[in-house]
Amino acid sequence: MNIVVWILIFLGTFLFMEFMAWFTHKFIMHGFLWSLHRDHHKKDHDSWFERNDAFFIFYAIVSMSLFYFGTTGFWYGYPLGFGILAYGIAYFLVHDIFIHQRFKLFRNANNWYSRGVRRAHKMHHKHLGKGDGECFGMLFVPFKYFKK
Question: Cα–Cα–Cα angle for 61, 47, 21, nearest 5°?
Answer without folding.
Answer: 40
